[in-house]
Design goal:
By secondary structure, this protein is mainly alpha-helical. It is built from two helices and no strands. The longest helix has about 35 residues. It is elongated, with a radius of gyration of 25 Å.
């Protein structure tokens, strides 16, 4: 039982050291991730269209 008490004591002390992000930081991170994912998706769509047109030209269909 003492090990369990010690464990929870350590957990409590570690949780107090954690710095949680603010709402502004979360919003900024979300916007940054959304923009990066959007840009990469558009880039991959363009590459796919280019490769598809090249394959169609080579195959001839």
């Amino acid at each position: 039982m003492e090990k369990l008490t010690t464990y929870f004591s350590h957990v409590k002390s570690e949780i107090q050291k954690v710095i949680f992000p603010t709402k502004t930081q979360i919003r900024q991170a979300f916007v940054a991730v959304f923009i990066v994912v959007t840009v990469i998706s558009i880039f991959l769509a363009l590459v796919d269209m280019l490769m598809s047109s090249i394959v169609k030209a080579v195959v001839g269909s």
